[in-house]
């Protein structure tokens, strides 16, 4: 049985840990509110812009000439992996990394065997883990979530679009967590480039919209296609940010509960140890008194 001092030190240590996890839960809750507001405001705009782009580009000759719609034989692949910069958020990062590896092994196994699959990491944890596992990480955007804004994400999207347009990659996919609620995050693996127009069967089921272009169709599409891709990446980062805070809040809540349970067990052990020590001292005193009488 552990000594009273050891048990007392463990109680102090666990109590300090509980205070830290409780504080981290409160910080995550505050950040979650802001992150949740941001993504809920972004979703309708991003969805409508994406629908408009697909509808317009599917019947446009100008959009067909865009290098971002160029469908080539898939030889070189880029996978955008959105994780967090910090840990202590449960299985949040692990799930994204597992989905990334599964995507590469199932969809791009032939390209990976030739060493033609590269990673574009947004978030320190994903970059570090994938490098350790032997994947090629050509770019890592770290500390992005500390200064999260459309301007910072836009530069990442522009870099990806430039590489695709120049033929450095033939396909780009993105893996990220979609925020559903505090306790639930949904892994998404979506194609990012090239832009695939709606097929005719899908388009016929929807109400066809005829757009009037002003000043000119070519100018509007030249601006709309890159902007839509930037918004799509920004939305994925916002989804991941909200998911991270929700996952961290849940993890810290569980850690606080576990610390409370551990404290109960330690206090019980402490009291039993203390009682055993007192009983032992009483027995020693009684035994000494009896020895003196004899």
TrEMBL record:
Pfam families: ATP-synt. CDD domains: F1-ATPase_gamma (cd12151). It is found in: Cell membrane; Membrane. The keyword Cell membrane applies. Keywords: ATP synthesis, Cell membrane, CF(1), Hydrogen ion transport, Ion transport, Membrane, Transport. Signal peptide: none annotated. SUPFAM superfamilies: ATP synthase (F1-ATPase), gamma subunit (SSF52943). InterPro entries: ATP_synth_F1_ATPase_gsu, ATP_synth_F1_gsu, ATP_synth_F1_gsu_CS. It is a peripheral membrane protein. The keyword Phosphoprotein does not apply. Belongs to the ATPase gamma chain family. Produces ATP from ADP in the presence of a proton gradient across the membrane. The gamma chain is believed to be important in regulating ATPase activity and the flow of protons through the CF(0) complex. PANTHER family: ATP SYNTHASE GAMMA CHAIN (PTHR11693), ATP SYNTHASE SUBUNIT GAMMA, MITOCHONDRIAL (PTHR11693:SF22). F-type ATPases have 2 components, CF(1) - the catalytic core - and CF(0) - the membrane proton channel. CF(1) has five subunits: alpha(3), beta(3), gamma(1), delta(1), epsilon(1). CF(0) has three main subunits: a, b and c. This is ATP synthase gamma chain. The gene is atpG.
